[in-house]
Amino acid sequence: MTRRIAAFARRVEADPFFLASALSDYAHSEELDEQGLALALGCSLDTLSQLRLCRRPHPDPASFRADIDRIAARFAVRATVLAEAVRRADALAGLRHTATDGRGLLMAARDRGAEEPPSPTGEGEA
Amino acid sequence: MNRAWEGPLTEQEARDLHRRLLLDDPTAPTDLVEVYLDRLTDWLVAQNPRIDPAVCSTAAEDALLAVIKNPASYNPERQRLEVYLRMSAQGDLRNLLRAEQRHSRRRAEWEAVELSPVVGKYIWDEGGDPALIIERREDEPDEPSVAPLPDSVRAGLTPQEQRVLELMERRERKTAVFAEVLGLTHLPPDEQRQMVKRVKDRLIKRRERAGGRHD
Predict the structure, then answer these.
(1) B26 touches chain A (CB under 8 A)
(2) Best interface-test mutation with A: which of B17, B23, B30, B61 has the largest number of A CBs within 10 A?
């Protein structure tokens, strides 16, 4: 593993195409540093760089399972932790999307309450 | 394909790797980067010794990213994968340098507004544009582009024109250098560029009349 490859693996952390993005989200949510993430996956830091450069597994269940198995087998990492990392990252991405999609969940609830006060007669509730 | 990547791939191995990218094998991008990133970066740095190696490295990464995300853009029937990556990386390097050029030009324009008395220092220098350096290196023959003028013609030039001619013969391209020789540094950048061009065009015409070549 060369310095350039490790640097490239870090560069693609912001790119959702790569597994790097999912591993980064997972590490943040678990408050893991690089060593901690490698430890959780059961691999070395060099292998962590190789993992980062993999394509992120497809979200549909059949492909997801196959992708996780393939990556885990190739780099000898814990498949369950890898799957958990990607699923967690997918969930966090979904939440982020909701939060930035014009109005967040809480804002939506608050707006609805402000715009549509309950009818005194109890009618017209959504 | 679990082989440890230590050297260049055979043509068949490169085709297999490309096929894995097409088939969405999640581990294929890692293999592509491991095989080609260092080789491609080293090649770009060697081809472009005047360019910052960090920029070469980014261009190599961009070329690999393009193939990883759109493997169908490469046709193995037309050329080897490494050749394709080299061409792509060279193109990406040119694009990066052009983007930097636009950034520098905007910065110079802002400085021209804020620091007009010293703007001459920051005039955009087309000859120093790294993207153009690459294009020139690819296009130009090794021989000098300006043939010497016969002494009879040279004798008819003003000292300033003679100095400009010497600079042209040395393949100097910086407008600022010519502007200095011609005493034009007090003029706005656009006027400097026009005046320098006028003098150079005049000299080229004289050289043509005298039978010297130019490109």
Answers:
(1) yes
(2) B30
Bridge-partner residues for A55, per DSSP?
A18
Inspect the interface and report whether the beta carbons of B29 and A53 lie closer than 8 Å.
yes
A18 beta partners = A55
Residue B139 has what DSSP assignment?
H
**C-alpha to C-alpha distance for A114 and A121, rounded to whole angstroms:** 17
CB atoms within 10 A of CB A40: 19
Q: Does B13 touch chain A (CB under 8 A)?
A: no
CA–CA distance, B167 with B170 (Å, rounded to integer): 5
DSSP state of B9: P
d(CA A18, CA B206): 60
Q: Are B56 and B48 in contact, with CB atoms under 8 Å apart? A: yes
Q: Calculate ∠ Cα B9-B15-B21, nearest 5°.
A: 105
Tell me which of B2, B33, B45 to substitute to probe the interface with A (most A C-beta atoms closer than 10 Å).
B33
List of residues 6+ apart from B84 with CB closer than 8 A: B67, B74, B78
Q: Is the pLDDT of residue B145 over 50?
A: no
Each residue's pLDDT tens digit, A77-95:
999 999 999 999 999 888 8
Look-up of token digits 């130009």: B140
B24/A contact by beta carbon, under 8 A: yes
Minimal C-alpha gap between A24 and chain B (Å): 17
List, for residues A32-54, the tens digit of each pLDDT value.
999 999 999 999 999 999 999 99
Residues in A touching B62 (Cβ below 8 Å): none
Residues of chain B positioned with their CB less than 8 A from the CB of A56: 26
Closest to A42 (Cα-Cα) out of A71, A82, A7? A82
In order of A6, B62, B97, B185, the CA distances from B54 in angstroms are 14, 12, 12, 34
Q: Give me the residue label for tokens 């042209």.
A: B168
Interface check A21 vs B, CB under 8 A = no
